[in-house]
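Much of our argument rests on the idea that a fold can be written as discrete symbols. The record that follows shows the chain in one-letter code together with its fold in token form.
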Amino acid sequence: MLIRDSLSAVDACRWSTRSIPHAPYVTLLPWISHYGCHYVIHGDDITSDGSGEDCYRFVKKAGRFLVVKRTPGISTTDLVGRMLLCTRTHFIGSLSNFLSGNEGHGSPEERSNAGMEMSQRIKDYASDETGLQPGALVCSWNEPNLSRQSSSAAIPGSCEILVDGVHPQPGQRLVYVDGGFDLFSSGHIEFLRQVVKAEEALGRRTGWYDDPSVHLRRTNGEGNDYGPAYLVAGVHDDHVINHWKGVNYPIMNILERGLCVLQCRYINCVVFSAPFTPSKTYLNNLPFGTPHAVYHGPTAFMPLTYDPYAPAKDLGLYREIGSHDFQHVNAGEIVQRILRSRQLYEERQKKKGEKGAGEEAVRRREQMEKDAAALGKERAANR
């Protein structure tokens, strides 16, 4: 990631307060004191500088270092390995089966434990900015698999609440977005931020921020105010994304992608297994009812043979976010960055004593990307 991509990610995290660019790799006491930080907190994994010394030795010596258990999950090395080796073993066929222990790797007991651990992690990620109270609401959409990647608008489904959270407040507009959100990046984050900005601009035009309105909300809400929009994000299943993008996309499975979306401060609700086409039936059966608007942004990475937002347009709900500074940053762009930097990855693997991807694996990835691009052009031509 580039520095501006990193800053975008930190600023959008529900549990961060402020991002500081160009921080030294070895944390120094004057640096943290300058920004009023009492402690430095890091996971329980070892971090060393180029000389093999502890990056936090100075703050540790001063008694200003706290250790927390590292968040379980995938690492950067895992993701790069998936990109270069084109593996699909990370895919999840059915979210409900995975969470109930009926899908996954290992024995029945191991699958059951993995499902329970992931259910708890979803709950943890759904907490508010304090990490202690309920925050985002989490749902799962259940319907026949075929309709999740088709243009059908007639197949019924239902929304199951996985984690209850904060519901829309009086006067808030219900806003819907959806996507793959693979390798959740500055491109996704900026799109979500622009959706919030668009709703805030509408709120200013309609008196949301006028003093009487603010006073009324704070009086009824025990002194707390809230924004004009309640943002619901639908996340597509792995097989849906792979149907359209090919190769071994998504690089992250639905749970990994969903957690990335869930930690974003712009999101109020996440719907796992959202259909690729937000049909009228689906939109009408979302939690809290039909949304006031369905937003979409500039997309060049996924060639389509039909317009998945036709139902939203028919209902007069469709809104479009224009171009922005990060619109080129998507999973495909990130994969290309990694391919260009493969040598650094290989050297890193050698230092760890692990096997790299190799020239043949990279050539296979490049060829698969070309084949997927050709298929996309063919689909577009036949649209």
User: Anything to note?
Assistant: The longest strand covers residues 173-179. The two ends are 35 Å apart (CA to CA).
